[in-house]
What we know:
The protein has 141 residues and is an alpha/beta fold. Helix content is 40%, strand content 23%. Helix 3 (84-99) runs parallel beside helix 4 (121-127).
Amino acid sequence: MFKHIMVPVDLAHIEVLEPSLEVVADTAKHYDASITYVGVTSTAPNSVARTPDEYQQKLEAFAQKRHSVHGQPVTAKVYSSTDPIANVDDILVKSIDELGIDLVIMATHLPRHLDAVMPSHGGKVATHTDASVFLVRPTES
């Protein structure tokens, strides 16, 4: 059913991704799907990398580490933006078509009142693409 899974990754917040990464590994194995880890970074130096090329190297290392967990084919793709916070949703939507994605699995937060005014990234991606979108909520502590 699914052949190519996209996983948006923010390398500055890896710790919140773990529940969704488990779902990615299980789903990819089940459908024998390839996985593309996608990152959106600033063109200016940030806490993760000084350049988009350095961010790409770090995302590729992350993808290879995840490959060793699930064994499915992986790629890493970084998009740079002068304002990643403002542009991340549009970049993710465009990358789905560009990469031939049929399933997006992404971490999300628990619903909040602010979501009525500022929709979540997952919500925007789901309403602007034909790909299936699987949002993984954080586990309760």
